[in-house]
Design brief:
Elements lengths: L3 H27 L3 H27 L10 H16 L2 H24 L6 H34 L7
Helix pairs in contact: 1-2, 1-3, 1-4, 2-5, 3-4, 4-5
Amino acid sequence: MSNKHDIHVLNELIGATLDSAERLDKASGDSESTGHSTLFASLASERREMAQSLAETVRALGGQPNDGGSILAKAQRAVMDLSQAIMPAEAGIVGAADRGEAELDRRFEAAIKDDRLAATTRETLRRAHAAIHRETREVHDLHTSLESQRDVSSDLYPQ
């Protein structure tokens, strides 16, 4: 049985996971909140560890792991910069991180549904996705909290 398809899918997800780490590093560096910065730095570190684990799986399958992000990530970081320029600083940073993490979550979810993957590869992806999904909820909840604070302080908020 050829592992070519599994290796391809894993490498795509390695690239997406490394892209996520870069986005989170940028969010960590740009954030004015120590708590947010620490959260993003921690998540970036976890993403790199996850990418390394996926790379080990690629090697075990006889493939060469992806060692970098994608061109798409560069475009997403440009959008992130634009979001931050338009929105209030912290809300823009957290919102961009939220959108990026939601996209990573969707990519893992889609890969798990790929019926051409070997059961062992799918299980590896399920474990990684469980962590991503949990952490994506954290970032989303933070974003929702910031958005609700912004709305409450608005002159348009009913008193």
